[in-house]
TrEMBL record:
UniProt key word Glycosyltransferase: no
Regions that span the bilayer: 21-41, 47-63, 110-130, 136-159, 180-196, 208-226, 238-257
Keywords noted in UniProt: Membrane, Transmembrane, Transmembrane helix
Origin superkingdom: Bacteria
Signal peptide: none
Name by which UniProt lists this protein: Phosphatidate cytidylyltransferase
Length: 258
């Protein structure tokens, strides 16, 4: 068996890669249905969502601290923390496919993901104190979350599926490490789930679609896809930021010229 964090063969690498992307994709995406259920169907308030987000932050912090301390105990040559090490061994199996090997002793991509959600929610709170064109409601935050939660993981899965099937991916001109197939998959899947979000909100009487709102959603998706293609591995915070900027700027411009 390969040592933790090390893959000894090409087959090990490929199998880990397949499992890894699905595990990470599930973590990315699971926040979306929870947010839809709370914001649209349970009509959660800003303060209720603040509590939910605080719990998520504490959970991720505890997860990060536990796995790094557990890793140290697991590899302690003096075996001073054998019970903790056994717990960590179970933990490793339970979280297989979420943490990349090089993240084991460092910060995982979960942290910038949640920080991106924190940023969007902070803007919800701050914008409520600003004039009308800057208002940004929980439903607007859900639109940005839809981009982050669905675009990135599905783009990665689609590109890897093509690669595993022996199909050639076509590199982006501004980043050879990313492909047009992944970029398009990001836009298509984020667009698909954005439509689901819109229909859910419209069904509850929470949303009236306008050309400006549709434009803002489309530009948020494109901004997220472009950011994902250039921002590196821990790109989730930047996807949240630039999708938010594109969305809010479009609404402000639409208000100014409407």
């Amino acid at each position: 068996m390969p040592e933790e964090g090390i893959m000894n063969t090409k087959s090990d690498t490929l199998n880990t890669k397949k499992n890894l992307e699905l595990g990470r994709a599930l973590f990315h995406f699971i926040f979306y249905p929870v947010a839809v259920a709370l914001i649209i169907y349970a009509s959660a308030s800003k303060w209720e969502m603040a509590v939910v987000l605080a719990i998520a932050n504490v959970g991720i912090y505890a997860f990060e601290k536990f796995r790094r301390a557990g890793h140290a105990a697991y590899h302690d040559k003096k075996k001073r923390y054998s019970r903790f090490a056994r717990c960590y061994e179970w933990f490793k199996h339970a979280t297989h496919g979420i943490i990349r090997p090089h993240e084991i002793t460092g910060t995982s991509a979960m942290v910038p993901y949640v920080l991106g959600l924190d940023l969007v929610f902070c803007w919800v709170m701050v914008s409520s104190l600003l004039p009308a064109p800057f208002h940004f409601a929980l439903l607007d935050a859900l639109f940005i979350m839809t981009v982050v939660a669905s675009g990135d993981p599905f783009a990665r899965i689609f590109a890897i599926m093509r690669k595993n099937a022996g199909k050639q991916n076509h590199s982006l001109p501004w980043n050879p490490g990313k492909s047009w197939e992944g970029f398009i998959a990001f836009c298509v899947m984020a667009g698909f789930w954005m439509v689901i979000t819109d229909l859910s909100a419209m069904g509850k009487g929470m949303l009236v679609l306008t050309p400006i709102l549709i434009s803002a959603q489309v530009l948020a998706i494109i901004a997220g896809a472009v950011t994902e293609s250039v921002a590196g591995e821990k790109d989730n915070f930047w996807i949240s930021l630039f999708s938010l900027l594109a969305y809010q700027t479009t609404l402000i411009v639409g208000w100014a010229f409407g």
